[in-house]
Hints:
Number of helices: 8
Strand order of the largest sheet: 1-3-2-4-5
Shape: globular
Largest sheet: 5 strands, mixed
Structural class: alpha+beta
Amino acid sequence: MNLLGKLSIGCLLGWNIAIAGMSSATAGNLQPNKLTPETLWNQILAHHLTYIQEGHRGPIVYDFQDPNCPYCHVMYDNEAPLIKEGKLTVRYVPVAFLTRYSSAEAAAWLQALNPVAALIHFERIVESALQSGSYAQLPQAKLSAKTAKDLHTNLGIMQALGIMGTPAVIYQMKDGKLGLIPGLATKKQLITLLPQLK
């Protein structure tokens, strides 16, 4: 499948962690020439991204999403049945760059008492808001300092990986290599990919 291009080792080894908003101590311990796919997966993505995890069975993938990205919502709809069936676990990584409302909407997800429920509710109502252009009906929250920092870090890591748009899904293959879906994937494409995931 041409859509499922793999991140090259050169890309992984050459990225600049410092721009991802990490502390200098963390960045100092993870020099680009020592960055491996395993380190990226187990340390950077797992411990430095702020995400909302939906599902607890099946392979884990990271899905970068802006609340105002229409393709992100189609991707969510394609992933949801696989999550429900226990075939996939998705860690939704909010970023906020598409509209002036994106940050407040992402904050409504992250600052909710139940972020998963907030994300699911948002997904149920977002299509009509995007079609009408009436963003006021979408849940928004005032950004806390922590949320602002988390969104900045998420976007920094996304850009450091060379990802320029959303949705973007990073996954780990059974052989340990990492792959990237840069854009929308169909449910059928996701199902085809599942047996290859770790």
